[in-house]
């Protein structure tokens, strides 16, 4: 099966980490319905998100996300077909401790939009590797049941 992999970057507006849980819960419910998986990196200076799934549904989700007033300066970094998903068991994996990606100064100077596609995808490969051994039996809305 062919999937669409889409990665975008944006700048949060009035970012508050304590509200991220509610945002993720809503997106996870929609992603279960639409067979979309992926990951979201959320920091005060950066949203970096990968969506994977059926092309038309990923495009619809991206159009919906573009209308969300909680972020601005959205840039599409990667949009390509793939035969496999990086996050097949995750309706939306969340990562916040990600200073290893780009510094706030690099983000402020527009580095995410200038980064080569392979570098952007490598960020999510690292998250995938880190997620291969999730905490014991922690299945929430974030992780699709594998049963």
Which tags fit this structure?
147 residues; alpha+beta; Alpha-Beta Plaits; 5 helices; globular; disordered C terminus; blue light photoreceptor activity; Acylphosphatase-like_dom_sf; BLUF domain-containing protein; BLUF_domain
Structural overview:
The chain has five helices and five strands, in the order βαββαββααα. The protein has 147 residues and is an alpha+beta fold. It has one domain: Alpha-Beta Plaits. Strands 4-1-3-2-5 form a five-stranded mixed beta sheet, with helices on both faces. It holds the Pfam family BLUF. One of its GO terms (molecular function) is blue light photoreceptor activity. This is BLUF domain-containing protein.
Reading the helices and strands in chain order gives: EHEEHEEHHH
Average of per-residue pLDDT values: 86
Helicity level, as a percent range?
25-40%
Name of the level-1 CATH class? Alpha Beta
Structural class: alpha+beta
The dominant shape is globular
Radius of gyration: 14 Å
How widely separated are the two ends?
21 Å
The beta-strand count equals 5
CATH architecture descriptor text: 2-Layer Sandwich
Give me the CATH fold name. Answer: Alpha-Beta Plaits
What's the story with the biggest beta sheet?
Answer: 5 strands, mixed
Main sheet strand line-up = 4-1-3-2-5
Domains counted in the coordinates: how many?
1
Work out the strand percent.
25-35%
Annotation field: number of helices: 5
Low-pLDDT stretches are 133-147
Domain BLUF: 3-93
Protein name: BLUF domain-containing protein
Pfam family, one: BLUF
GO molecular function, one term: blue light photoreceptor activity
